[in-house]
Sequence to fold (439 residues):
Amino acid sequence: MKSIFYTLFLILLVGPLANAQDQMLTKEEAIDLVLENNLDIQVARNTKLIDDNNADILNSGYLPSVTGNASGSIDKQNSEAIIRGESLSANGVENRRYNAAVNVNYTLFDGLGRYYTYKSFQERSEQSELEVRQAIENTILQLFTVYYEAARLTENTNTLEQALEISKDRLKRAQYQFEFGQNTGLDVLNAEVDINTDSINLLNSRQQLRNTMRDLNLILNRDLSSQFIADTTVNFVPELQMENMFKEAKLNNVRLQIVEKDINMGINDIRIAKSGYLPTIGLTGTYGWNESNNANPNSFASFNTSTGITGVVNLTWNLFDGGTTITGIKNAKIAYKNQEIAKKQIQLEVERDIRNAWDSYTNALYVLEVQEKNLQTNQNNFNRTDERYKLGQVTSIEFRQAQLNLLNAELAKSQAKYNAKLAELQMLQISGQLLNVDF
Fold:
């Protein structure tokens, strides 16, 4: 009896503490929190910002470069000169020279390498956006895997609490019957053992629920000790069809869209490599200012200032670079072939995944339907057994067996419900529809 009271004390102590300040965490709130706080999504978004910066016009090579430079010099010299037969000399003459210039350089044509490099940056930016979507899809699937586990454990805990109440009522009944000599003490002992078993199961379920709550708080990137109540309502997307799912997967699967961007960038890499065969045409413009102050009395001009604009068009054509361009083109073509191979592989994997997901989904729905019928059968059986037990027409062992059958049926039905929902979400993710449905 001491073990029973000790276990019940733990349940009464832990239960209220775990649920004292719980609030409902709806699916919509969980999605909002994970989109805002999840660290993996934040990293993916920051990576996209980097790729967006790379795809900006400031990184395109289409804008000119402008540089400014200035210099000044002072020197002292001794000089001798013969002017019209007369010898002249000067010692320690100080000369000053100053100049400044602004240079503008612009590439008019570089064999289209700049153009295709810019296109690759834009493709990479779009691919990065797809990777953000992929991170969101993976995180939301992870979120609901844990969320529905918390919901399942919530249902299980409630079911086990009801089972414990039934076992406590059975113990009271057995004790009354024993006191009035209607049964032996064995029924009381059996009822006590069953209460211990039900209490331990309830404690374990509550512990698993708390652990799962911490797992979910980790995904949501919030205080791990936050308590909540999971919504146990499950709604399935109506009228899903295999052929439609397969078509959607071929059009919207994020892995296929990402590898398609790799293909486009591979084509651009080949074109960039081929640009080495073409010339580069550049334009250079300079605006300069020069001043010199020559204190040498023998000089014809002691002070000189000049300003001017200079424009230069230059053409550079690398007629042979030792084979670097040829090698670059070959390697780019090989890399492109590898990307095509990767695309075919991913196409096969997506087709396999969508078919497997569909089979898992339809099988899970069938299992759920069977478990719902099984639960109803066991509920009816328990109700009848309970009535007969009260009339003394069945033994406590038979009553316990009916109770266990009902308990197992309730747990199995709950498990089947969430398995079916997760199978549906996995299928929707593969088909690219996960972000377009209500949870």
Remarks:
- The two ends are 47 Å apart (CA to CA).
- The first strand starts at residue 24 and ends at 25.
- Residues 113-179 form the longest helix (67 residues).
